[in-house]
Amino acid sequence: MRKTATVVAAFVFGLLAAAPAHAQVDGHCGKYVCVMTAHHNRFVQDITVRTKDGLPGTLRSYWGNYRSQKVNAASHRWAVGYEQSHAKLVCGGLERDGRTIEDRVCVSI
């Protein structure tokens, strides 16, 4: 019993230590793509961009002076982990067959 209580206490403490006090997740969808971000104030932890139709395309995300690498997928998560003091938007875009399908789908942070 004592061992179980210790393991549970360690697990709960780990969860509390891992998440910032006021972390939030925000998202916004355009016609073809959705952008979601987990952030604490302007400290962006990750950005997820996904297509609404589930079909692959070239996805990317950007904010402030951060520009992600392009990936060919229907959904992708970028771990960012830094703060951009003057950035107020996290954005994403979708290209297919070399054409921009949708760009500047943004989330306010």
Brief summary of the model shown:
The protein has 109 residues and is α+β, with helices and mostly antiparallel strands.
Describe it.
The chain has one helix and nine strands. It is α+β, with helices and mostly antiparallel strands and 109 residues long. The model is unreliable at 1-19 (pLDDT under 50).
Question: Could you list some keywords that capture this structure?
Answer:
109 residues, alpha+beta, 5-stranded antiparallel β-sheet, disordered N terminus
Tell me the overall shape: elongated
| Main beta sheet | 5 strands, antiparallel
Task: Report the helical percentage.
Answer: 10-25%
Number of helices: 1
The ordered H/E elements are: HEEEEEEEEE
Structure summary, number of beta strands = 9
Secondary-structure topology with pairs:
Layout: H1 2-18, E1 24-29, E2 33-40, E3 43-51, E4 57-63, E5 66-67, E6 71-73, E7 75-83, E8 89-96, E9 99-108
Antiparallel strand pairs: 1-2, 2-3, 3-7, 4-5, 4-6, 4-8, 8-9
